[in-house]
Amino acid sequence: MPDPTRAQQIIAAARELLEQEGPDALTMRRLAERVGIKAPSLYKHFPDKSSVETALMAESLHETAEALKAAEAAAPGSFQALAAAYRTYALAHPHLYRLATGRPLAREALPPGLEDRAAAPLVRAVGGNVDTARAAWAFAHGMTILELNGRFPPGTDLEAAWATGSAGFVPTHAR
After folding, report:
1. pTM beyond cutoff 0.70
2. Which of 30, 35, 94, 169 sits in a 20 to 30 Å window from 46, CA-based?
3. Are 11 and 54 in contact (CB under 8 A)?
């Protein structure tokens, strides 16, 4: 049976490689070197690189859920607070954010309920409408990825753009 502590060490090392050097550095060979084992030993814990990436996606989703939960506790019902927390997290972890949001999500490999837990503060902030919550997330993700990729023209007032976009997701009963 694989050692769960070793698996946690492997994920921590994978995250370090990803965050410090970007996605191209995240190879099974580099990961094995970082952990201090031979590459074939990694496969006792993770069958392939995509399973390592899925574990990193789950970690990112868990951390995003925690950031949104804290933002909701500080400013209940505020989509603006949630959007700010989402943006702050993504900007602090750009490679992890891109990995977690730039490809299909292996939902079947996630801990049960994790995705719903991450979305719950957003659903509550927009008045309980799941479709509005999805649109709000799409807004926040779009703004975030454009910012991370340097796609806004120089001098763009991103705070004003975030404020303007966020204002559209205030529940009608709160306007």
Report:
1. yes
2. 94
3. no
